[in-house]
Design goal:
transcription cis-regulatory region binding, TetR family transcriptional regulator, coiled coil, Tetracycline Repressor, domain 2, Arc Repressor Mutant, subunit A, HTH_TetR, mainly alpha, about 70% helix, 2 domains
């Protein structure tokens, strides 16, 4: 008796459906802007009924928050990976890798980062901010323990450096001058190394 070919499931798993909605929203936010994008457009682009949207998100702002969380997790993972890829005691290389990945990751995100972090007025999510600062904070704490540098407060220093990096990238993205990636990376790297007193080595 010939075997019947397996039929495709009529519904997608919840995570896949949620990702479809988020991806559609991200694409529309980039194309049309946050304010001009409607829930109807998001559900149409994701090929789902409008009621399905509310199974996963309470509002358009909730999708934006989910996109911000996803970007934060991915970006923080990139920062941590770039640090860990350097040899264990290559402290200068680890700082340089953090600076390069931090700058290029935000530059590559471009308009998406603007929408996620600046386009919609809402209270700062300090848990999200902490996630972004943690990879450098862990590096600074480890370097202090190994005697690579002397930093009294690794978290404060990491917050200071990441906030400066983020601000410098924003200035480059939305300023009038053309972006010089290599020069921006060099400046951030130089200042970060200066903070940990490795700029003379």
């Amino acid at each position: 008796m010939p075997q019947r070919s397996p039929t495709r499931p009529r519904t997608k798993p919840p995570k896949e459906r949620r990702d479809d909605l988020m991806n559609a929203a991200q694409r529309l936010f980039l194309e049309n802007g946050l304010a001009a994008t409607t829930i109807e457009q998001i559900t149409s682009a994701a090929d789902v009924a409008k009621g399905t949207f509310y199974l996963y998100f309470s509002s358009k702002e909730a999708v934006l928050a989910a996109l911000s969380d996803r970007f934060t997790i991915q970006y923080a993972a990139m920062l941590r990976s770039s640090i860990e890829e350097r040899p264990a005691r290559d402290w200068k290389g680890k700082i340089a890798a953090w600076a390069k990945t931090g700058v290029t990751g935000l530059l590559d995100a471009g308009a998406l980062a603007e929408i996620l972090f600046h386009a919609h007025q809402r209270p700062v999510d300090w848990n999200r901010h902490k996630t972004l600062v943690t990879p450098l904070g862990e590096l600074l704490r480890a370097g202090s323990s190994e005697g690579a540098w002397s930093i009294d407060d690794p978290h404060f220093t990491a917050t200071f450096l990441f906030s400066g990096l983020h601000g410098a990238v924003d200035d480059a993205l939305f300023g009038a001058k053309p972006i010089n990636r290599s020069e921006l990376v060099r400046k951030v790297r130089t200042l970060a190394l200066r903070v940990v007193a490795l700029d003379k080595e």
